[in-house]
Every structure is written in structure tokens, then in C-alpha cells.
Amino acid sequence: SVLGAKIKFWMDNTPSEYHRLDRLDDIDLLPEYEVEADGFAALTLHRYRMHRQRILDHGYILPFVTARGPLCTAGFVRSTTNLMVDLVENPQGAHKLIELCTRVVIDWLKAQHKVLGDTVEGLFLLDDIVGFINEEHYREFAHPYLKRICDAFPQHWVKLYHNDAEIDACLDHLPDCGFHVLNWGKQKDIREVKRRVGDRMCLMGNVNPLEVGVRGTPEEVKRATLECLEGGASDGKGMILSVGGGTSPGMPRQNILAMLEALEEFNGKKLAQV
């Protein structure tokens, strides 16, 4: 919305956007932006200001600033299909759009940090569109921009990357961007991810969120969770238990408790071995 996109709110779904940039040649016609004053970014910052002190007064902190990544943002502005075509047919124009979106992302994260204050100690970047491209396109159109975002913030910050689309093309390169934690989807087995990433990133995943998390029984959830823990943290380190991506709507409470029960059982065994 900072770049002029109209946002539509639905009664029973998350908001969606009207693509602002029908012709890539019109990119220079996009309005100058100011994240602290434009669109829903300004409204969100206002809400942060309203509730920040209440949250802190209750003993909580606000540790992360959050944004969609540069390719995801470009897809919102241009449409994902058009963006994919642009990478092949108009790479120069695609770079120009992704460059703009990278600046917007950095400015938006910095604006959040300014409002939330010194309890912030990390950033959370979500970009599933990176999973739509091959390794060659990743290295050209994604990696430099993801790295620029990481480099724009303090070295001691925790930098968490979410992509629950395909991660095969980007997996080996993500640690070099500056990310410390990877939250990915159900597609890639945690053992393979662990083998390829090693100790360069902490793994946040990846119990199947839908077929197991929503549709499975508590017993099935517990078994899947224990299998995931054995695959990702057999050495007792380098893993944060999570579903693969985000928790799907409709996941029963008892299935969440089953994950916690499995975690307690796994940690108990590891402690007994010490």
C-alpha cells in the first residue's frame, strides 16, 4: 500500500491487493513513498505506538520487526505471474522493481525498529516467491537483495527467513545472506536440510502443518514431531520445533499439546544422556 496499491478486506479471508503496476515501463510513475506516513504502514506504526507500552508493562518484549521480502513485495505490486515473466523477458526492468522493493522493505523494517525501540533484537523476513525460481535466477534476482536487507541491520541481530515454498535453489546460499534461522515448509525433509546447511543456520521446522497438524490425530502428531526432532536435533542443538511454515487454520488444540508432549519427551531423553 506504500507504493499505491489498493487493499481489499474480506469477511472470511486475509486482505488482498490490486496490482499497481500493469506495465513494467511505468515503474517511474509510482509515487514517492514515505513508510511512516503512507498506506497501511502508517496505520500499523500508529497501532504499534498505541500498544507498545501496554505490552511492555505486562512483562513482554517486542523482539522482532517483520516484513515480506523483496520478491514477494514485487509480486504484490506487479503480480507474481508477470514478475516471473519479467525475470526472463525484461531482466533489467525486473531488477529495477526488485531494487525499489528492497528499499521499501529496509525502510519499513527500520521504521518499525524506531517505533518499537530497544527491545528489538532481530528481523523476520518472509518471501515465498524465492521458491518459485531456479538457482540461476535466485543468484541474480534474490540473493543480492536478501543480503542487502540483512546487511542493513546490526550484525548481532537474529535474522530469521521464512519460505514454505520450494527451497532447493536457495538453501545452500541462505547462510551467506546473513540469515541465522530458516523456517521452511513440509516439502523438504529435515534430514536433507540439516545435511546441506550443517551448523550454519538454526532450523525452525518442520512438522507437516496440514495433513498432520490439522487432519492428524494427537498420536500421529506426536509421532511426526518425534521423527522431526530426531532428524533435525539428534545432536541436541541447532533446531527450534515448529510446523513447516505457519500453523494452518483449524489445527486442534490437542494437536498443539501433542507437539509439546513430544518435545518434552525428546528433551527428557537428551538430558538423561548428559
Question: What's the quick description here?
Answer:
This protein has 274 residues and is α/β, with parallel strands linked by helices. The protein has helices at 39-57, 70-78, 80-89, 91-116, 135-151, 174-177, 190-197, 218-232, 253-273, and strands at residues 7-8, 16-17, 64-68, 122-126, 158-163, 181-184, 202-207, 239-243. It is globular and about 65 Å long.
What does this structure look like?
This protein is an alpha/beta fold. It has a domain at 201-274. It has nine helices and eight strands. The strands form two sheets. A six-stranded parallel beta sheet has the order 3-4-5-6-7-8. Strand 5 (158-163), helix 6 and strand 6 (181-184) form a beta-alpha-beta unit. Helix 1 (39-57) packs parallel to helix 4 (91-116) and helix 8 runs parallel beside helix 9. The termini are far apart. The mean pLDDT is 96.
